[in-house]
Amino acid sequence: MSWFVYILQCSDNTLYTGITNSLDKRISKHNNKKGAKYTRGRTPVILLFSIEVGSKSEALKLEFKIKQLSREEKFKIIERKCL
């Protein structure tokens, strides 16, 4: 099973990073206010970046690394479309 790490832009222009094994369903959940508590009041969200990784463990590690980055560093990843 593939896992994805993704970055969303929320309606208040903040960024949210998460993981999922079904990207389309997860984005839909965020936009239907059924996703993460952080995004519920910040819909609609827009997918800016996603990357497929091999396991949940890898996804969690990468998510943590991305969450440690500054907003500017996250936008550099988004612009390059890769890590």
Features:
GIY-YIG endonuclease; 4 helices; 3-stranded antiparallel β-sheet; alpha+beta; globular; 25% strand
Strand order of the largest sheet: 2-1-3
Distance from N terminus to C terminus (CA atoms, Å) equals: 21 Å
Which sheet architecture does the biggest sheet show? 3 strands, antiparallel
The fraction of residues in strands falls at 25-35%
Secondary structure class reads: alpha+beta
What would the CATH topology be? GIY-YIG endonuclease
Q: H/E order of the elements?
A: EEHHEHH
On the 0 to 100 scale, the average pLDDT is 95
Note the overall shape: globular
Helix content estimate:
40-55%
Q: Tally of extended strands?
A: 3
CATH architecture label: 3-Layer(aba) Sandwich
Instruction: Give the CATH H-level superfamily.
Output: GIY-YIG endonuclease
Q: Give the number of domains.
A: 1
Could you name the ranges where pLDDT drops below 50 across 5 or more consecutive residues?
none
Please work out how many helical segments DSSP would assign. 4
> In CATH, what is the class?
Alpha Beta
Task: Provide the gyration radius in Å.
Answer: 12 Å
Give an overview of the whole structure.
The protein is of the alpha+beta class. The protein has a single domain, classed as 3-Layer(aba) Sandwich (GIY-YIG endonuclease). The protein has four helices and three strands. The chain has a three-stranded antiparallel β-sheet, sandwiched between helices. Strand 1 (3-9) and strand 2 form a beta hairpin. The mean pLDDT is 95.
